Amino acid sequence: MEHKYIRIIFYGYAILILSGALLLMLPASHVDKLSFIDALFTSASATCVTGLIVTSTSENFTFFGECVILLLIQIGGIGYMTLVSLFFLFIKNSLSMDEKRVMKQSLDLPDLNIGSFVKKILLVVLTIELMGAALLTVQFSQKYDFSEALWHGIFNAVSAFNNAGFSLFTDSLISYQGDAIVLGTLCLLIILGGLGFFVLIEMYENRTLAKKFTLHTKIMIYGTLFLIIFGMALFLSIEWNNPKTFGALSLYDKLLNSLFLSVNFRTSGFNSIDISVLEESSLFFSTIFMMIGGGQGSTAGGIKITTAAVLIVTVFFILKNSNQEPSVFKRTIEQKVINKALAIIMFSSFLVLFATLLLVETQNLPFIKILFEVVSAFATVGVSTGDGGILSFSQQFDTFGKSIIILLMLAGRLGVFAFGIALVGKAEIKHFKYPNGRILL
Questions:
Q1: Are 310 and 338 in contact (CB under 8 A)?
Q2: Rounded to two decimals, what is the model's pTM?
Q3: Cβ neighbours around 382 below 10 Å, total
């Protein structure tokens, strides 16, 4: 039955991406010529909240086109099934069991109490995005007139909370690399979006008593903090003396931009420095951060922090040769959760390596940059080494290469486990068990 719901979600995203591409192809949406593959790529990147671009958002799209992109980002970020459920709740005030199960699968919810949770999601999204847009509008109004500053504020706030990384600035945020309010606001929006709706709602409802947080929420909070701080330290140590990145910055700006880099390398595609001039070691280690991503049921991609945490804890217990089952925060991790985490990591690694191999063999471009782009697409991050200008490295790919990136973005947004089930199907239930076999490890 789960396979049926996953296919519904998969086809829904595919239809949404195609519809977005057709809207972007309208003469009212773009200024210059726009090929269908570029329109499809842009639509997929927005719907899958990735942020990779093969045509300039601000220069090649009209205001209507930008609105289409923003709408796709919002729908893709909160999940189109959320809006479908809200629509059904509005017209008939209830959901059928099938509708609840599809929604549960779409947002990876712990139970079928869908109605109240969906309403809370909408309230959380609107509140956070409006507050972010207000802060950014005030700051942008120092350089632009109010109407333009307001549009930039709304667009960047929605893009940041949904971890999309789309920006209307032609240099992303390089011109704001010394502005703590802009970078700090975007960081906060990205982090909140990457934690996941379940975590945000639980944090608010139990804000006075952290002991009531579930195991999932605790792992997400501590895991996010660790990855941000560790990422900052790593990039500072590598890029400290690089004259093209941090070398010419003051200590304050180095800390600010390393924070922004660390946050964006995991979940979003904004950049306040030129990614193409980072040291290769930074590019390599950043692929690990991108693969980890954010939280389950969030606007971020990747294998998820909880998946990585489960495998790390399991390996630790195995290496200790402990007689106890793996546990964290005094809670045992179920074997089926460990098995699922292992499957996610193995399938994700295979998918990334296979896609990288295909692109290396067909695109005749540098390996490290292709690997970086593949991981960024699969993890729906959106940072890129670029094409030498303002566009992503994917702009240099042919139609086949761009199609591979589109599939990777869709796989990342749907979730690798769900994408795998959609591809290979689900095994039939068998009511017998084979005898144990001996394997030496």
A1: yes
A2: 0.89
A3: 31
